[in-house]
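Morning!

This is the sequence you dropped in the shared folder:
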Amino acid sequence: MALLSQVILKDVIANIPAAGVAGRLFFATDTNVAMRDNGSSWDVVTPAPLINVMSAEGDLIVGGAAGALTRLPAGTSGQVLTSGGAGAEPSWQAGAGGMANPMTAEGDIIIGGASGAPARLPAGSAGQVLTSAGPGAEPTWQAASGGGDSSSVPSGLVLLEQHTASGGTELDFTTALSSDYDDYLIEIVDLQVGTNGTCPILQFSTTEGTSWDTSSLYSWRQTNTDLQSGSSGTNNQSGVDGLVIFGGSDRSGLAAAAAHPMRASIRLTNPLSATANKSIRMEGIACYQNGDPYGFQAWGLYSNNAGVNAFRICVESGTLASGTVRVYGLSNTATTGSGSSGGSITEAITNVALTSSAPGNFTVAHGMSSAPRAVTIQMTAMGQIVFQTPMFDATNLYLTASDTGVTATAACFA
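The structure's back. Tokens below.
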């Protein structure tokens, strides 16, 4: 008769005897597995129970060598569990780098800044719309360029491209001029030169800016009024390499003083025409190199009937130190309206008649529901009417006249 100790055996798994006695039981004390001898091999009767190998909060159980239960200690804050591939235990690793959130306030949005880096665009004012500034420039919040009911889409001013001076010699506009528009407003905001006496010049391209026409096809004439003394004068050039925005016939130019930047508006019409020469109108306020502030009007002619599809503002010497130039377009596309003709072209422009009662400053209400986005002045009599600073607000236009009875029309763009 077999003893119980011969029928039921227990030891570590490494000491299990060879099978051959059918019916024997073996209990492995190190793995808690019970096995039965079938006469030729050992069969597992009860699998090993799951043994808790964890010892601290945050631990995980992973498969170690041969699948043995193994403790993986908690990683550090922010680490992620990362596979080591087949035959290797997983581990805690630093997570892949993500985008840092640049937003700091409700209403902010994330835009692509320099080289595509995430940048914060603060919330705009109520009613403003996000407006593209073209390739290479960040979008901005701008006043909506129209209104009306859903049956009409007004085609007022649309910001097409803008660039800011920061010490270079030119600002190139290569995307704004297109067949979508035939009337453009170029706004120069606080442009300052780096060298006293430098003259800002406008030049055109028919090759989308791959080359610039510096031949003698440009002619210009300018009238100006000293805003302090009231004296007036004219400057002009013919057959030269560019249109002087403000300066003398000898190409003398602006004062390099932070307190006296140039503010001007330029009107360019139908530059893509393949049959007509190109004409422009310019007006604004600038400080001459001797420190005297002037109001000016100028007219320019580019004697080339090829289509112009780019322009630049540059200097012959020195730099453009600071300031911004924006290009707006007036859409030439007809839109569905409520008139008897079934269609209209809506240009959100209010024309205001101007007449000076005396030399010097005067104010005229523009009659719009809010401040215009831009205003240009077209003289209708001899003399000068130019803007003060500020030029306008939500109610009025602020102007300066060279004499009594000077007349003009102000085109106010909504």
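Headline: The CA atoms of residues 400 and 406 lie 10 Å apart.

More detail when I'm at my desk.
O.
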